[in-house]
Amino acid sequence: MIRVSGEGLPLAEGLLNPNAPISAKFIWIGAGVGALIRPLGGWLSDKLGGARVTHWDTIVMIGATIGAGYFVSLANQSPTPEKYFLPFLLLFVLLFATTGIGNGSTFRMIPMIFSKEQAGPVLGWTSAIAAYGAYLIPKIFATQIKAGTPQYALYGFAAYYLSCLVVNWWFYARKNAEISC
Fold first, then answer.
1. What is the pLDDT of residues 90-124, one digit of tens each?
2. Which residues of the chain have pLDDT under 70?
3. Which residue, 3, 91, 133, 162, has most beta carbons within 10 Å?
4. Which of helix, strand or coil describes residue 133?
5. Around Cβ 171, how many Cβ atoms within 10 Å?
6. Is residue 26 within 8 Å of residue 100, measured between CB atoms?
7. DSSP SS3 for 22
């Protein structure tokens, strides 16, 4: 079971950690940062190109996700897991920032990739898939937390982000890509 948790929640074998931060106090930060920074992704895409912004943003996202998973793993093995909360929190905020920037850059790329007639429906479909992700990611976390291995969720997300990086690079960011944005 994850040890870095809310106040008074069990560590393992029914033990309590009175030093655990109250995670509910921090939940709003990620969503707030992601939402506020989203326009930066679109603005950067206008200046540098959507595929380039998405590419480098995804690399940072992969690193932040692996780093967060690493600190969760360390916390799960430590008698004082609360000492890993701050680096985990900072990496998680970075992860939310990169998802906001990536969201902005991806949505900026769509009208460049698709015709005027197709761009609207593709934006709608992409929004629906993004909303599904906002449902699915917490479900995956909950399953892995219950299993005592939340770091596996993070490592799985990193693998997914790597697949997104490859797709973006192949179709849009590489030299001589079919579509350049």
1. 999 999 999 999 999 999 999 999 999 999 999 99
2. 1-16
3. 3
4. helix
5. 15
6. no
7. coil
Q: How far is it, in rounded angstroms, from Cα 57 to Cα 119?
A: 23
> CA dist 155 to 2, 40, 43, 150, 172, Å?
15, 26, 30, 9, 25
**pLDDT given for residue 2 in this prediction:** 42
Q: What is the pLDDT of residue 178?
A: 85
> What is each CA distance from 16 to 4, 90, 95, 139, in whole angstroms?
11, 24, 29, 24
Q: Which residues pair with 16 in a beta bridge?
A: 10
Reading the block at residue 104, the tokens are: 């902005």
DSSP 8-state assignment for residue 79 = S
According to DSSP H, which parts of the chain are helical? 27-48, 50-76, 85-113, 116-147, 150-168
Quick check: 88 and 2 in contact, CB under 8 A?
Answer: no
**Residue 103 near residue 130 (C-beta atoms within 8 A):** yes
Side-chain-facing half-sphere of 174: CA atoms under 13 Å = 10
Return the DSSP state at 171. I
Go through the chain and tell me how many residues it has. 181
Residue 30 near residue 93, CB atoms below 8 Å: yes
Structure token digits, residue 169: 């690079």
